[in-house]
Amino acid sequence: MKKILFLIIVIGMSLSGYAQNEFSSKFKAIPPKNIKPKIKKPIPPKADLPKITAPKVIKNRDIPLDMPKVNFVNPEKITKKAQNLEVVTYKKNQDLGNFKTGSLTAKVRYRDAAYVDGDKIRVYVNDKVIEYEVILDGNFKGFEIKLAKGINKIDFEALNEGFAPPNTAEFQVYDDKGNVISANQWNLGTDNKATLILMKE
To answer: Into how many domains does the chain fold?
Structure first.
Protein backbone atom coordinates (compact mmCIF):
# COMPACT_ATOMS: atom_id res chain seq x y z
CA MET A 1 0.00 0.00 0.00
CA LYS A 2 2.80 2.37 0.86
CA LYS A 3 4.45 1.57 -2.44
CA ILE A 4 1.31 2.45 -4.34
CA LEU A 5 0.96 5.73 -2.45
CA PHE A 6 4.59 6.62 -3.11
CA LEU A 7 4.13 5.88 -6.80
CA ILE A 8 1.08 8.14 -6.99
CA ILE A 9 2.98 11.02 -5.33
CA VAL A 10 5.93 10.68 -7.74
CA ILE A 11 3.62 10.64 -10.77
CA GLY A 12 1.74 13.67 -9.45
CA MET A 13 4.91 15.67 -8.97
CA SER A 14 6.14 14.90 -12.46
CA LEU A 15 2.84 15.98 -13.96
CA SER A 16 2.91 19.25 -12.02
CA GLY A 17 6.42 19.93 -13.35
CA TYR A 18 5.22 19.61 -16.95
CA ALA A 19 2.23 21.77 -16.21
CA GLN A 20 4.50 24.72 -15.12
CA ASN A 21 6.46 24.57 -18.37
CA GLU A 22 4.29 27.26 -19.99
CA PHE A 23 5.38 29.74 -17.34
CA SER A 24 9.00 29.43 -18.35
CA SER A 25 11.09 32.61 -18.19
CA LYS A 26 11.92 32.31 -21.88
CA PHE A 27 9.36 34.80 -23.25
CA LYS A 28 9.36 35.80 -26.91
CA ALA A 29 7.59 39.09 -27.76
CA ILE A 30 5.65 39.38 -30.98
CA PRO A 31 7.26 42.07 -33.23
CA PRO A 32 4.95 44.98 -34.18
CA LYS A 33 3.73 45.34 -37.72
CA ASN A 34 5.56 47.79 -40.04
CA ILE A 35 3.22 50.81 -40.00
CA LYS A 36 5.42 53.30 -41.93
CA PRO A 37 3.40 55.17 -44.57
CA LYS A 38 4.34 54.37 -48.14
CA ILE A 39 5.45 57.55 -49.99
CA LYS A 40 4.88 57.47 -53.68
CA LYS A 41 7.60 59.02 -55.85
CA PRO A 42 6.30 62.03 -57.83
CA ILE A 43 5.98 61.43 -61.53
CA PRO A 44 7.51 64.37 -63.46
CA PRO A 45 5.21 65.96 -66.03
CA LYS A 46 5.92 65.12 -69.60
CA ALA A 47 7.54 68.01 -71.46
CA ASP A 48 8.50 68.43 -75.07
CA LEU A 49 12.26 68.64 -74.65
CA PRO A 50 14.45 69.43 -77.67
CA LYS A 51 16.18 66.52 -79.16
CA ILE A 52 19.84 66.41 -78.21
CA THR A 53 22.12 65.91 -81.14
CA ALA A 54 25.83 65.32 -81.18
CA PRO A 55 27.96 68.40 -82.01
CA LYS A 56 29.14 68.61 -85.56
CA VAL A 57 32.89 68.52 -85.95
CA ILE A 58 34.14 70.80 -88.72
CA LYS A 59 37.01 69.30 -90.57
CA ASN A 60 39.51 71.26 -92.61
CA ARG A 61 37.83 70.24 -95.86
CA ASP A 62 34.51 71.69 -94.62
CA ILE A 63 35.88 75.25 -94.13
CA PRO A 64 35.04 77.54 -97.06
CA LEU A 65 38.03 78.92 -98.90
CA ASP A 66 36.75 82.52 -98.82
CA MET A 67 36.52 82.76 -95.01
CA PRO A 68 38.11 86.06 -93.90
CA LYS A 69 41.21 85.87 -91.75
CA VAL A 70 41.22 87.57 -88.34
CA ASN A 71 44.25 89.78 -87.77
CA PHE A 72 44.88 90.43 -84.09
CA VAL A 73 46.53 93.75 -83.25
CA ASN A 74 49.29 94.00 -80.68
CA PRO A 75 48.24 96.72 -78.14
CA GLU A 76 51.90 97.60 -77.62
CA LYS A 77 52.12 98.68 -81.27
CA ILE A 78 49.03 100.86 -80.88
CA THR A 79 50.55 102.58 -77.83
CA LYS A 80 53.82 103.24 -79.65
CA LYS A 81 51.93 104.56 -82.66
CA ALA A 82 49.92 106.94 -80.46
CA GLN A 83 53.13 108.15 -78.80
CA ASN A 84 54.73 108.76 -82.18
CA LEU A 85 51.68 110.75 -83.34
CA GLU A 86 51.87 112.87 -80.20
CA VAL A 87 55.55 113.58 -80.82
CA VAL A 88 54.83 114.50 -84.45
CA THR A 89 52.05 116.84 -83.30
CA TYR A 90 54.28 119.13 -81.27
CA LYS A 91 57.64 118.54 -82.97
CA LYS A 92 56.87 121.21 -85.55
CA ASN A 93 56.19 124.95 -85.86
CA GLN A 94 52.73 126.14 -84.86
CA ASP A 95 50.58 128.78 -86.56
CA LEU A 96 48.67 130.84 -83.99
CA GLY A 97 46.68 132.72 -86.62
CA ASN A 98 46.40 136.10 -88.41
CA PHE A 99 44.39 138.95 -86.84
CA LYS A 100 43.43 142.38 -88.12
CA THR A 101 43.41 145.33 -85.79
CA GLY A 102 43.31 149.15 -85.90
CA SER A 103 45.13 149.42 -82.56
CA LEU A 104 48.29 151.49 -82.24
CA THR A 105 49.83 149.08 -79.74
CA ALA A 106 49.49 145.46 -78.70
CA LYS A 107 50.03 144.02 -75.24
CA VAL A 108 51.16 140.36 -75.18
CA ARG A 109 51.03 138.19 -72.04
CA TYR A 110 52.01 134.53 -71.51
CA ARG A 111 52.46 131.94 -68.76
CA ASP A 112 52.95 128.18 -68.40
CA ALA A 113 49.69 126.52 -69.44
CA ALA A 114 50.10 123.32 -67.43
CA TYR A 115 52.44 122.07 -64.71
CA VAL A 116 55.16 124.65 -64.03
CA ASP A 117 58.16 122.61 -65.11
CA GLY A 118 60.78 125.15 -66.21
CA ASP A 119 59.70 125.84 -69.80
CA LYS A 120 61.85 128.51 -71.47
CA ILE A 121 61.10 130.62 -74.55
CA ARG A 122 62.67 133.33 -76.74
CA VAL A 123 60.45 136.08 -78.22
CA TYR A 124 60.88 137.71 -81.66
CA VAL A 125 59.03 140.66 -83.21
CA ASN A 126 59.50 140.95 -86.96
CA ASP A 127 62.46 138.51 -86.69
CA LYS A 128 64.24 140.61 -84.05
CA VAL A 129 64.82 139.25 -80.52
CA ILE A 130 63.04 141.33 -77.87
CA GLU A 131 63.14 138.73 -75.04
CA TYR A 132 66.25 136.56 -75.15
CA GLU A 133 65.22 134.04 -72.46
CA VAL A 134 61.97 133.89 -70.50
CA ILE A 135 61.24 131.23 -67.88
CA LEU A 136 57.49 130.54 -67.85
CA ASP A 137 55.75 130.22 -64.50
CA GLY A 138 52.18 130.38 -63.20
CA ASN A 139 51.96 134.19 -63.41
CA PHE A 140 51.46 136.20 -66.59
CA LYS A 141 54.43 138.16 -67.89
CA GLY A 142 54.90 139.87 -71.24
CA PHE A 143 55.55 143.04 -73.21
CA GLU A 144 53.86 145.83 -75.16
CA ILE A 145 54.84 146.79 -78.71
CA LYS A 146 54.00 149.61 -81.06
CA LEU A 147 52.35 148.18 -84.16
CA ALA A 148 53.69 149.16 -87.58
CA LYS A 149 51.28 149.48 -90.45
CA GLY A 150 50.87 146.16 -92.23
CA ILE A 151 52.33 142.90 -90.95
CA ASN A 152 53.59 142.55 -87.37
CA LYS A 153 54.96 139.06 -86.79
CA ILE A 154 55.50 137.71 -83.28
CA ASP A 155 57.41 134.43 -82.78
CA PHE A 156 57.70 132.37 -79.58
CA GLU A 157 60.61 129.92 -79.80
CA ALA A 158 60.81 126.94 -77.40
CA LEU A 159 64.29 126.77 -75.87
CA ASN A 160 63.45 123.55 -74.01
CA GLU A 161 60.52 121.34 -73.03
CA GLY A 162 60.92 121.50 -69.25
CA PHE A 163 60.52 118.42 -67.09
CA ALA A 164 57.16 117.50 -68.70
CA PRO A 165 57.25 117.79 -72.52
CA PRO A 166 56.21 119.60 -74.57
CA ASN A 167 56.84 123.31 -74.02
CA THR A 168 53.34 124.60 -73.20
CA ALA A 169 52.05 128.13 -72.67
CA GLU A 170 48.86 130.15 -72.57
CA PHE A 171 49.02 133.56 -74.19
CA GLN A 172 46.73 136.60 -74.60
CA VAL A 173 46.98 139.60 -76.91
CA TYR A 174 45.12 142.89 -76.15
CA ASP A 175 44.67 146.08 -78.18
CA ASP A 176 45.19 149.60 -76.84
CA LYS A 177 41.60 149.66 -75.50
CA GLY A 178 41.96 146.45 -73.47
CA ASN A 179 40.00 144.28 -75.92
CA VAL A 180 41.24 140.72 -76.54
CA ILE A 181 42.65 140.27 -80.04
CA SER A 182 43.66 136.64 -79.52
CA ALA A 183 43.88 134.09 -76.70
CA ASN A 184 45.29 130.63 -77.30
CA GLN A 185 47.94 128.07 -76.32
CA TRP A 186 51.01 126.55 -77.86
CA ASN A 187 52.61 123.12 -77.56
CA LEU A 188 56.13 123.11 -78.94
CA GLY A 189 59.14 120.90 -79.16
CA THR A 190 62.59 122.33 -78.54
CA ASP A 191 63.73 124.79 -81.29
CA ASN A 192 60.23 125.03 -82.80
CA LYS A 193 58.29 128.28 -83.05
CA ALA A 194 54.70 129.43 -82.55
CA THR A 195 53.91 132.39 -84.84
CA LEU A 196 51.22 135.06 -84.40
CA ILE A 197 50.60 137.75 -87.06
CA LEU A 198 48.85 141.06 -86.31
CA MET A 199 47.73 143.00 -89.38
CA LYS A 200 47.44 146.72 -88.60
CA GLU A 201 44.89 148.39 -90.91
So the answer is: 1
